[in-house]
Amino acid sequence: MTYTLAGPGSRFLALLLDSILRTLATLVILLPIVLVVGLTGFTQWFQGLAPWLVVVPIVGLVLIWGVYFLLFETLWNGQTPGKRMLGLRVLRDQGLPVDFRAVVLRNVMRLVDALPWLYAVGGICSLLNDENKRLGDMVAGTIVTAERAGELQPLVALVASPLGPRALEPEDLALLDLHQLQEEDWYAIETYLKRRPELDPGTAGRLSWQIAGPLLQRLGLTPERVSNRFDAFLEELAEEYQRREVL
Q: Is residue 16 within 8 Å of 83, Cβ to Cβ?
């Protein structure tokens, strides 16, 4: 499978965007508390609150600063809001989707990459190896790829659609430039669809992802546009190709 590696610059910008979002979320949690304490005094504020009103902000801060990257990279298949806005995604070295173990390892090592300040260790590591890996990527066996290099999605659109871009509709297939795909691409799709009944679900999932990944990139699509349904996308793509051949 082919992919484009994300450079240190785009990775740092994604990190900066994530830091801005975390800071804004922190202000949303803390500003009301600061205002109320300023008006009433800390003792009166604390005594007048139910315990859960104290616990909720603490839990929110832990989620924002403790498990932000772990949570999003797990739930969003290797992306954080910052990475999604820049079209970046974490994958395993083999080009397969990132798993929970790899996400945990790379984010635990983030504590080392961030030393001594401004991710100096991680930045130096990424500049010294061909795959732009920080220390966490080396330990976890991951890479960061650019699905839409240089494309910054509006923050408003991300907030309005937290699950990502609009899914690919049947009418969208008719607009795809299938000339971007080569004869060997169609052969790979046809071979996979013929062999699919013989494959177990795990193998079929990995093969469909490996075949669909580079095709999506060449067609200017992201995995979210096909709702990460790579098997169904290949089948629909083959049907659209046959429809055009008939026409």
A: no
Mean pLDDT (the chain, rounded): 80
CA 244 and chain centroid, separation: 33
- Indicate the residue type of 62: V
Higher pLDDT, 118 or 141: 141
Q: Are 133 and 126 in contact (CB under 8 A)?
A: yes
Output the CA–CA distances (angstroms, integers) from residue 42 to 28, 33, 37, 45, in the order listed. Answer: 19, 10, 5, 5
Structure tokens at 130: 């061909």
Distance separating the N- and C-terminal Cα atoms of the chain:
31
The secondary element (H helix, E strand) that includes residue 46 is helix 42-47
Give the pLDDT confidence of 42-63 residue by residue, as tens digits.
666 556 565 656 677 788 888 8
Quickly list H helices, 51-182. Answer: 51-66, 68-75, 81-86, 100-108, 110-113, 120-128, 135-140, 155-160, 170-173
Residue 67 amino acid letter:
V
